[in-house]
Amino acid sequence: MKCRIPALLLVLVLAGPGFAAERIHFLIPGGAGGGWDATARGVGEALARAGAIDASSYENLSGGGGARALSHLIETADRQQNTLMISSSPIILRSLRKIYPQSYHDIVPVASVVVDYGALVVRVDSLYLKWQDVVDDFSNNPRGVNVAGGSSRASTDHIVAALAFQKSGLDARQLKYIPYNAGAHAMVGLLSGETQILSTGLSEAIALADQGEVRILATTAPERLERVPDIPTLTEQGVPAVFSNWRGFFAAPGTTDTQRLQFERILAGMYETEEWQSVRESRGWTDFFVAGDDFVAFLNQQEQEMSALLQELGFLN
Amino acid sequence: MIDGIITGLYTAFSPINLMMVLLGCFAGTFIGMLPGLGPVSAIALMIPITYGLDPASGLILIAGVYYGAVFGGSTSAILINAPGVSGAVATAFDGYPLAQSGRAGKALAIAAYSSFAGGTIGAVLLLVFVPILAKVSLSFQSADYFALMLFGCTAIAAFSGKGQVLKAILMTLLGLMLATVGEDPSGIQRFTFGNADLYDGISFLLLSMATFALAEALIVILKNAGGSAPASNLHSSSLGSLSVSREERNDIAPAVARSSILGFFVGILPGAGATIASFLAYGMERNLAPDDKQDEFGRGSYRGLAAPETANNAASTGSFVPLLTLGIPGSATTAVMLGALLSYGVQPGPRLYIDNPAVFWSVIISMYVGNIVLLVLNLPLIPYISKLLRVPRQLLTPIILFFSLMGVYLVSFNTVDLTMMVVIGVIAVVFRVLDYPLAPLLLGFILGGMLEDNLRRALLIWDGSFAFLWQRPITLTIMIITLLTLMVPMVSTLRGGRRFRHPDTMSE
Can you give the pTM of this predicted structure? Predict the structure, then answer.
């Protein structure tokens, strides 16, 4: 009996309302070095260094392009009350395509933290000067426009390009999307001349454009970004294609409202810290804090749009 | 440009940076030697240490770790048949048979000399040609890469010249099939059986550790159940001998010269890299070798060891061209290095050597220093390292099993991978017992993915037409070389008919 009392006390302390503030466990659905990994660790380190949480721990659980971590979070929910899983648009795309047996509806969305918009990029010597040039060329000869991307068909890079073509009034099914196995290789494809357009993330595109090798024709941001005021959006070129590749956090099913609000409060507080600002600067991320019901509404809207687009492209049966 | 080089010299030879090279090479060699841990893990481990350093020192340290790990990887490939990086697979083809026949010291010494030569020649080419090489690395399109990968497949001939043509082809096909497991680039699941753990396909490390290291360890156990003999019982006294005779040196030198140039240029291509370079060099040297030497390939040929080892290092140096001049990482390792550069606030690209000459040139110059350090560091250690083979089997085998399983687990953190590894290892043992060569399986697996991806892209871009095979000059040239490589031995065999079949001894 003697040893039970301290153990019981420990349980009470751990289960207390302040627990989430003490320690956050980050579940990362991909391996070390990927985008999910960088974001989760960046957020965790900023929070720990700023003193918002006492400790952070990380668990990389790759498999099934994220399916394994999602299942794990659901199956072991009762042990995951201080866990935040990082995810992004694939959780919607892959759930729609039934690659993930579960979806974000089965877990608790907490908040999105950063965003990277899609960018459509051409070589500096390209004849395309504005998006309309691409549209004209494509209308004349759809087979002559090759679009490179760093991921497989029906994943983010393809979706960004397809959305831009669809909203330009073109047939997105005729789009020639050339998949490469990494953004860097897609870039080589563009520079070697075998493709005319590269669909990639804006932060990656800015770094390449700074070196003078490529030009950014348009982004899928809703409006021009402060960081790069010269880069036009598709929207202002008359194409209402907005796509936000958010990265955000999800909690295990059964997370109480109190706990969810606690996570939300910690994440919201992060943006004011110097630690976060230095992480964000070095990574070229754009803040994008959408939490709670707004986040759920945002996800629902993106799910609806993606579903329609995938349907049109023939990826949903 | 001269100013830049001088600034680079100053930076590279400052005491702190010399120490960084030394530290990096030492740590890299040590980590790379552990089966299952390659340059990616080594660099990932070192990056946090470099955060406090200035960019040049940090990058020099990381580059040191990189060549150290590439070099260390060949050590585990030679001694225990555990190539932890795909670039070291071809090194194991001849290095392991050499070590098994009691020439471990010599094999390691040849590997050290070849690495040094490859790295140094690569660094010279880099220093002289870097500004114009950026164009070369962008001249290859998917169609050309497809032809290059096809050419790489001719290296399989090295395993089929021993009366095993059919077996080698079958194993290559099996390798190609294994490469198709997972989600394909059109977003379709192949051979996953609805199992989420197979969606990402089978990783190279897993397959390599299972078919080479694990199978080897299991065979040892089966062969000598309960025995306490040392892992290699042949010529134990000469295990650590480094002496390479003049004759052998003359035999190897031309191979080293050819392989370093070939390796460097293949390394420049962002879609090829060190692995393809090592296979191409291995295949090239076998084809160029006189008939009596050809049969040694795969059974302990000095040339067969020197060629891929040289090419691998030259290509690693070459891969800095797209990284530094275009900001494009050609491999997982250079991708990690790019991440490190960005976190120091250095953006590689065409303007790097103008904006940041200290970083640019000091890295290139530190490559010479790194190569010398590696040689000086490793030659004296070889006699001790090769004594590893004298460790009793009941100790060595569990250590190999432990490190190869752990290496695979530390990449994915997925326990299913371990189960898969054991199953593949057991199947590999069955193949070994039935005398099927496993090297073509791994070769087919490595080339298969790239072969398919590039063919798919070429066909998409050319609207389903195979016209790229004759309309693109680079593709056509490589295809002709490939055909010649395949035809010439056949023709000479038909005409001469003097090449008789040898029983295979590689898998003993």
Answer: 0.83
Which pLDDT tens digit goes with each residue over B158-185? 666 556 778 888 999 999 999 999 888 8
Minimal C-alpha gap between B493 and chain A (Å): 41
Q: Within a 10 A sphere around the Cβ of A62, how many other Cβ atoms?
A: 25
Closest CA to A39 of A228, A246, A206: A246
Contact B122, B260 (CB under 8 A): yes
ipTM > 0.90 for the complex: no
Whether the Cβ atoms of residue A150 and residue A178 lie closer than 8 Å to each other: no
Confidence of residue B500 (pLDDT cuts 50, 70, 90): very low
pLDDT digits (tens, 9 = 90+) for B278-322: 999 998 888 888 877 777 888 888 999 999 999 988 998 888 888
CA distance B311 to chain A (A): 22
B184 in reach of chain A (CB within 8 A) = yes
User: A-chain residues within 8 Å CB-CB of B460?
Assistant: 146, 176, 178
Residue B35 to residue B439: CA distance in whole angstroms: 17
Q: How far is B121 from chain A (nearest CA, A)?
A: 26
Show which of A209, A237, A265 is a domain's final residue.
Answer: A237
A11 assigned to some structural domain: no
Spatial neighbors of A87 by CB under 8 A, at least 6 apart, are: A29, A36, A66, A70, A104, A247, A248, A249, A250
Q: How many CB pairs below 8 Å do chains A and B form together?
A: 126
Chain B interface, best mutation among A75, A96, A188, by max B CB count within 10 A: A188
Q: In terms of Cα–Cα distance, which of B40, B92, B63 is closest to B208? A: B92
Residue of B175, B137, B145 lying closest to B457 (CA atoms) = B145
Contact present, B247 and B302 (Cβ < 8 Å): no
On whether both A232 and A167 belong to a single domain, the answer is yes
Please indicate, yes or no, whether residues A251 and A159 belong to a single structural domain of this protein.
no
Tokens of B335: 């991708």
CATH number of the domain within which A144 lies: 3.40.190.10
- Residue reference for tokens 């009762």: A78
User: What share of chain B has pLDDT > 90, as a percent?
Assistant: 19
For residue A68, give how far its alpha carbon lies from the nearest alpha carbon of chain B (Å).
7
Q: If you measure CA to CA, which chain A residue comes closest to B353?
A: A211
How many helices (H) and strands (E) chain B has is answered by: 25, 2
What is d(CA A277, CA B490) in angstroms, rounded to the nearest whole number? 66
- Chain A residues with CB under 8 Å of B326 CB are 191, 211, 213
Number of domains in chain A: 2
- Residues A188 and A89 occupy one common structural domain: no
Residue A55 lies in a domain: yes
Q: Is residue A5 part of a domain?
A: no
Instruction: For residue A161, tell me if it sits in a domain.
Output: yes
Structural domain including A284 reads 17-115+245-313
Whether the Cβ atoms of residue A111 and residue A102 lie closer than 8 Å to each other:
no
Do A52 and A198 belong to one domain? no
CA distance B267 to B248: 27
Do residues A287 and A304 share a domain? yes
Chain A contact probe: residue of B460, B463, B475 with most A CBs at under 10 A = B460
Q: Are residues A128 and A226 in the same domain?
A: yes
pLDDT at residue B503 is higher than 50: no
Q: Which residue from A minimizes the CA distance to B464?
A: A143
User: Shortest CB distance from B196 goes to which of A31, A68, A176?
Assistant: A68
* pLDDT category of residue B493 using cuts at 50, 70 and 90: low
Of the three residues A237, A263, A297, the one that is the final residue of a domain is A237
Residue B200: its H or E element: none
